[in-house]
Sequence to fold (121 residues):
Amino acid sequence: MIKDDGYLGFETWWDMASILGVEAAKKQMINWQPTLESYPQDKVYAYINHGRWLADCIYCKTGAEVVFKDDPWFVCFHCFNQIVGGKRIQVKFPNKWNQIEKALENLPENQQNWNIGDLIP
Fold:
């Protein structure tokens, strides 16, 4: 990937939420149980924004999360996929993701953007 933020994971996210004062999010999570079960009927689609692969939540239309090609699963940290019982959903990356990354890698980070339907630069 153009920029590797690393994978924080659930526990690190929980700790960071405390540090950043995201108490509302933590309160909402109290009843959420992480699961490795997936909901195969739905998918989210990855795009690049400022050098990061992201996907938008199809349920709450509010959350956008960093996603990874080597772990192509999505859980929204706003609604926690509650509509599908907290199950994770698959992230679809474009078939030519490596060509897209290659085309963007020498641009300034704020110009490293690609969305579904865009031509490969």
User: Anything to note?
Assistant: DSSP finds three helices and six strands in the chain. The chain has a mean pLDDT of 80. Residues 9-20 form the longest helix (12 residues). The helical segments are 9-20, 23-29, 97-104.
